Amino acid sequence: MSKDKKKRRKPDPEPAERMTLPASSKRAGAVAIVCLLVAIVAAVLAKRNPGRLPPGETNVAGGPALTEGVAPPVAVPIRAPQPGTNPPPKLPEMPINQAVMVTVELEFGPKLPSIAEALKEVERRHQPDVGTNRTFAILDAYGGPTSDGKKLHLSMHVSSERPGIGTLVFRRTGEVLWQCRIVLGTNTGTFTGKDLSIWLGDDAGKASVVDGSGHPASLLDARLRDTGMLVRDFWPDDAEREVTFIYSACGCPVKVLARRTGERTVRTKDMPVIFPDDPAVVQVISRLMRW
After folding, report:
1. What is the rounded CA–CA span in Å between residue 6 and residue 219?
2. Cα dist. 258→105, 185, 240, 291 in Å?
3. How far apart are CA 157 and CA 143, in angstroms?
4. 277 exposed, middle or buried (CB, 10 Å; 0-12, 13-18, 19+)?
């Protein structure tokens, strides 16, 4: 007896147990995938357009991100100023053994000083190239109140003596009134400050040199070099004469008006103030003139 054998279909195996994720995890994964895709797209765009930045980002200057169709700015490097790139203006120059007139208007307040007092408020600064001696000297000075009476008009006759820098400063304000570099010139003689020359004018204005040899006690006891005449015979009593003094590197004259009064002379004008930087020579002149 034959038996029909029916092939039985094996039952499908039980499906493995499936792991399910909570909804929050699914959302987090989706967000991560989206962020990854955005990053990839941004990187591709950055390679294709290096001058543009992804939306929401800022440029190196801290400004808003560039948008499509806007050309990127050109970066201009800013360099900090280097020391010495802007040197101070070059000082004016003048040769030694020359002179210049420095004229200023100074404010002292309601009461203006005399010229001699004002000169004490003008500081002399010397920066010699060699040594410590002065570079210039004020030979004489004159002036007076301005037209409105508020300032003092002051003119100073400055003689250059040695190479270096010379400066005049108003002490009250620190204002630089004059500054100059003194250099060697064609006349390179050295100022010694020992030779005083005196010239005496007659009634017509012609000047004669006074011979100071023999160390006369006064100007009236000296003689004129050209004629040998005593000054007391040349200068009449009560007559006004122009007296010229030379004591400077530049050879510049300093002139005063004086009147003979017996055995003395007196200045008929108090200006100019003579040789304010050389008090020793002023003493010699005062002795000779019997001031």
Report:
1. 167
2. 28, 36, 6, 10
3. 12
4. middle
| DSSP string across 9-44 | PPPPPPPPPPP---HHHHHHHHHHHHHHHHHHHHHH
Q: CB–CB of 278/193 below 8 Å? A: yes
The single-letter code of the amino acid at 70 is V
Is the domain 93-183 a CATH 2.115.10 member? no
d(CA 164, CA 112): 33
Q: Identify whether the C-beta of residue 198 lies closer than 8 Å to the C-beta of residue 243.
A: yes
Q: How many CB atoms lie within 10 A of CB 193?
A: 16
pTM of structure: 0.69
Q: Domain locations in the chain?
A: 93-183, 197-289
- pLDDT tens digit sequence for 238-271: 999 999 999 999 999 999 999 999 999 999 999 9
